[in-house]
Amino acid sequence: xxxxxxxxxxxxxxxxxxxxxxxxxxxxxxxxxxxxxxxxxxxxxxxxxxxxxxxxxxxxxxxxxxxxxxxxxxxxxxxxxxxxxxxxxxxxxxxx
Length: 96
Known about the structure:
Elements: H1 2-12, H2 16-95
């Protein structure tokens, strides 16, 4: 019986080779996870940078449109003022 017990206990004890193999596999798994995380980060960063460029272009386009709109309002006010002045000058000319 004792010989049987000894052989069982020896089978269940991990050897140095299996411990080394386990640590190598763990290191490879960590390396693979690190590579996957780095790839995901670079992918997300590239998308963020692309979106940032698009956001900046949209901001500049909106700003340009707003400037054009204000310019058009100013031109309309100039035209209305010019029309009023011309009308008043006409009344002064006819009235004299």
